[in-house]
Amino acid sequence: MLQSQSLSHPSERTDKPDSQVGSDSLFAGYRRHQGAWDELFAADGEPHPHCRLLVERLGQLRSNEFQNRRASADLVFINQSITFSVYSDRRGVEKIFPFDLVPRPVAASEWDRTEAGLKQRILALNHFLYDVYHDRRIIKEGIIPGELVLGSKCYRPEMIGFEPPGRQYVHVCGTDLIRDTKGEFLVLEDNGRTPSGVSYVLENRVVMKKVFPQLFQHFRVRRVEDYPQRLRDALFSVAPAGAGDPPTVVLLTPGPYNSAYFEHSFLARHMGIELVVGRDLFVEDDVVYLQTTHGAEKVDVIYRRLDDDFLDPEAFRPDSLLGVPGLFRAYRAGNVTLANAVGTGVADDKAIYPFVEDMIRFYLSEEPILRNVPTYICDRPSDRAFVLDHLHELVVKAVNESGGYGMLMGHTSTEAQRAEFREKIRANPRNYIAQPIVTLSTCPTWTDEGSAPRHVDLRPYIVSGRSTWVLPGGLTRTALVKGSLVVNSSQGGGSKDTWVMENTR
Amino acid sequence: MISRVAEHCFWMARYLERAEDTARILDVNQTLLLDYHVPMEQQWRPVLIISGIYDMPGEPQAETVQDYMTWEASNLCSIASSLAAARENARIIREVISAEMWERLNYYHLWMQGSAARQLYENSRCDFYSEIRRINQLIHGIADGTMSHDEPWSFFQLGTYLERACQTARILDVKYHMGMRGGDKVQDADATPVDNAHWVAILTSCSGYEPFHKKVRQLQDTGMAVAEFLVLDNEFPRSVRCCLRRCERAAHAVSGRPVDQPGDGVEKMLAELIGWLNGRSIAEVFRDGLHEALTHVVDSTHELGAAIHRTYFDVRGRTGSSKRGV
Prior knowledge:
By secondary structure, chain A is an alpha+beta fold. Chain A is built from 15 helices and 23 strands. The radius of gyration of chain B is 19 Å and the shape is globular.
């Protein structure tokens, strides 16, 4: 498997010509996970066609060389404090999101299809949101049970009859994809409220370019760096009538002790907009103002990373100290745009998720390009009976939890845990869904024992203003613990750079 | 710019400057004691007094005071506390400062928390204090070269020079707190070696030794010459008058008004204080008491801090958060 010399960069060539097949090379001794799709290697142990060159080039690195580059990558994260803080620590222990240097490649052709599927899905979700706050056709026509929609904790009656600029609700969506054992991407869930993680995609790429500059010269990897500009353009495009030119756009954060504060700061910096907390803003005559050293300045668009509940103590939770009193009034008066819109949570409710494929058929008259993971709705008596009988082989999820909390992984659970969930499901079936356990695909990941398979998922980011754009690739999250299927950062997961690779000869 | 962000900028600068000044004070005190015999009680207590600390637990001995002023987390004036507060303010406004500033500040934050800083402190106190001084110098250099010189920059300047004006006045007042002659007229002939050593130490702690000797060729009265240099000099960047002028320039950069037309409370107060300094010679200052004059400067910088808060940060009269300043 020798590659042509022209591709070999001096600094990545090792001294001994035979070292690329030596026992200390990166992929020497890599053992594929038996029951999972592998992102780099096919079942016969050979690399997938689009990964061949990458495997060859990375394989030339000796383990210790790789280890050195890994150490320098870690240092970048530490010195710049690219971190998240963990909720349970009040003052926030800042933690580095562990980063793995082996990229996760996606062939361009496959990505193009995935991207089309994501655009289709987000379009349907937007139609759905407009519909449930206006005519409710999808309920009237019996496609989705009304009680599931109207009974959702995230359904906001305050939004009924309100038309957000451009009828756009979900300006930023993070849709979690997983690959099943046959290698097909499935949608695990949509995150249409305040999805996070995109800053890691951008930082990971920066670090990869620092650590492996030569690799990028040889592969045509689609750029991710445009994200902040794309997002800013999208936010500009949905400014309300009467906005400034350019509109004043701010990013509203819950504050410096929020786990994603780094990301909020990162995005504000890269978009060139102000990062604000609730008390920087105030509302007068239904207009939102920013408190500056030179007095008040009108605000047109708020990219808010604050949940609906906390946005405005007058409209929602009265005990919220993070929000802006009167903000919702200003929003309904059409004087300010909120991105994402209020009330989008009903679309990414896990109880609504099983109906998204039907939504696509209903609103777009198209077949879904991306499929869902088969899902049992515990609110349905027949599904519930099945779930209660098969807990040991299912994953059960509370519909209003995220970040890997409130979950039961049936196959690794104890009898006591299953009993507890049985009780919970019976008490409040609306609150639970269940899915067969999908063995997520694996990707070679650097571990203490050299490269080894670890499970991964993929969160692409979809940005919508007057039009929709999808970030090529997205955040690949990886479980770092052998065999673990939980990839959430709050549960000890790490991340990888995702490479959408143009076809090379 | 957003008031809250301006406030973080201002305090980041103050804390950085405070860390540097504290290191200067500790360093010079340490150096001085190698050369001169000073009674125990006079050795380290003044270091505490000029930082406004009257309640350090235990006896003010060399190691306890240095430890307390360098590492003690419960002491808001310690170097460790100042740097942590500077870094926390920077973290909150990371989108405002340059990436290079942040990276360096964060690097030193981690350095202070790791074992390397401790080791340097134990092995070579002097190198440790130089390193601390270098932090602020480095950040200022990076800021100058990488941050737009617009409004956040002006608040960064304002914080730096207000803190420095106050610290220089305090350093100069240390002789008074040592119970030594400092306010009355001291002729060189009368001055003891310890007395002169202290003036030299004070100059050195302000990096003023060489600039002073370049400027003051004929030395009649060491004390008065040093005080004149550190209070009234127009070019030395750590003199009180020079620092206040820089504050004035920063405040007017924010408002956009010419320097000779003070408009808001901060500008008026600065003009008044600078006018007060302009209106007297060093001989008159000594006649009325150096300590009294320095106390006036220190009190005025406190009032200026309050005026800055009212004018820029708390425009609508809301009560601010507790975290950002002491």
